[in-house]
Amino acid sequence: MLSQRLLSFSIVGAEWVLWVIVGLSVVSLMVIGDRLVFFARTRERLDVLEPHLTAALFRRDWVAVRALLGKDTLVRNVLRAGVEAISNGQPERGAVEQAMLAAMARERARYDRRLTILATIGNNVPFVGLFGTVLGIITAFSQLGRVGAASGAANAYVMSAIGEALVATAAGIVVAIPAVAAYNFAKAHVVGRAKQAEALMRSVLAGLTRSEAGGVVAAA
Question: Which domain holds residue 149?
Fold first, then answer.
């Protein structure tokens, strides 16, 4: 019968589930480490960039603007796309804005890379642990049915097996918490940088407007 076949599969125990959770925890830590290194390498210094960039835009000094945007970060890459469009002789405000929005989409995809893995692990590893707990309990009660409930040794075995099975749920929760926390931190970090880029995009577009009014777009 199907139920007997499922039971024979279930009594293999929960240890293999624990190894799956260990594997998922390793993957989660690898992704967290990768994103931490990436965010640290591309960290912004807007307290330094913004005043100098604003001053260069006010002077319509596009050479200085390009020099300020040389580093590989989300904000600088987005703004550089607009400045390059201006330098290539594109004076239309709408076209420059679209170039920066396209760069924004590329940068967000780059910063969001591998975060889906963290979300998947964080959302599902507790269920994997719960599955292991269920398998452990099934194994314990199957053993109890074989040796008889009256046996004191059987009762001790069942209690021990159930205790071990609950470890799977605890392990799943322990792995899920840092994965979810890291995912939320990374998403908030990316959203914050995107908002900073949008704010400075307005400064670039305002500088372009002043250049058009002064007739010096060609100097870019």
Answer: 2-219
Q: For the chain, how many structural domains are there in total?
A: 1
User: Mind listing the pLDDT tens digit of every residue in the chain (220 residues)?
Assistant: 545 554 555 555 667 888 899 999 999 999 999 999 999 998 888 888 888 888 887 777 778 888 888 888 999 999 888 888 877 776 677 888 888 999 999 999 999 999 999 999 999 999 999 888 888 787 777 776 666 555 555 566 677 777 777 888 899 999 999 999 999 999 999 999 999 888 888 877 876 665 554 544 334 4
Q: SS3 for the chain, per residue?
A: CHHHHHHHHHCCCCHHHHHHHHHHHHHHHHHHHHHHHHHHHCCCCHHHHHHHHHHHHHHCCHHHHHHHCCCCCHHHHHHHHHHHHHHCCCCCHHHHHHHHHHHHHHHHHHHCCCHHHHHHHHHHHHHHHHHHHHHHHHHHHHHHHHHCCCCHHHHHHHHHHHHHHHHHHHHHHHHHHHHHHHHHHHHHHHHHHHHHHHHHHHHHHHHHHHHHHHCCHHHC
